[in-house]
Amino acid sequence: MNEWLQTAQTFVTSEAFLAAIRAAVYLLVGLLLARLLSRGLARALEDKLDAQQVMLTRRISFYLIVLLVLASALRELGFDLTVLLGAAGILTVALGFASQTSASNLISGLFLIGERPFSVGDVIKVGDATGEVLSIDPLSVKLRTFDNLMVRVPNETLVKTQLTNLSRFPIRRLDMQIGVGYRTDLKQLRDVLMGVAERNPVCLEEPKPLFIFLEYGDSALKIQLSVWARREKFLDLRNSMHEGVKAALDEAGIDIPFPQRTLGGLDGSPLPVRIVDNVPEAEAEASARD
After folding, report:
1. I need a surface site. Which of 179, 229, 230, 253 has the fewest CB within 10 A?
2. Longest Cα pair distance anywhere in the chain, in angstroms?
3. Which domains, and CATH codes, for the chain?
4. Which of 36-40, 219-223, 249-253 has the least mean pLDDT?
5. Could you give the CA distance from residue 133 to residue 116 in angstroms, rounded to a whole number?
6. What family is this (predicted)?
7. 253 and 260 in contact (C-beta within 8 Å)?
8. DSSP states of 16-54 as a string?
């Protein structure tokens, strides 16, 4: 028993045990300081940087402090940092050859950070995915779609394909393409559509609404009505303008035609059409005539 106590006392007072205690203290205190300092730095820069830059600053500062703390802890345990750095360099080269796609995404992420085509909180459209930007990470961008799904888009895809930022500017334009009958008075139609825009509280007075004649269609005169609204009111504008235009055209007696086809002979005369109630009898009568 006395020998075991002496052995335990010797271990407790040994330099290795004290080094392990110091390394553990370095890690605990360092992680706490890294979290506090990174949060404090992010809060201090909230008014000077956008959400994307604040997030990146917070992450970079946190991991830098953690790396320094980890290096100090390893040094207390007696590890040779020179050997570790050499091994880390070799490992980095090997991983670079093994993960070329990840390296491409990482470089593309640096281009996105420098170009800043969007920020955290913006609504973007990439391919078939449209949603709010949740985070911009070194390898990918996370989106939350409007039906509350998370979509991960690799940074390389964002650099190579067309990207649309739906919330970059404060106002947006709604283009409504409307077809009306050929007998419609275009002046009356213009007055009706402009009246709908003027009565809509969401529609902006500046820029002014636009009435544009597009073309003579197959079955209708094609018109475009373009109106503006603030970005956050765009969905309200889209719903209310379509409802208002339909109601106004019905009230004014302006027809919205559907595609029609006229069948006729070579001389332009219409083909005769006969309505038959009893099909078997009609077939028997046709056979008798033949």
Report:
1. 253
2. 127
3. 2-98 (1.10.287), 115-165 (2.30.30.60), 171-252 (3.30.70.100)
4. 36-40
5. 13
6. Belongs to the MscS (TC 1.A.23) family.
7. no
8. HHHHHHHHHHHHHHHHHHHHHHHHHHHHHTTTTS-HHHH
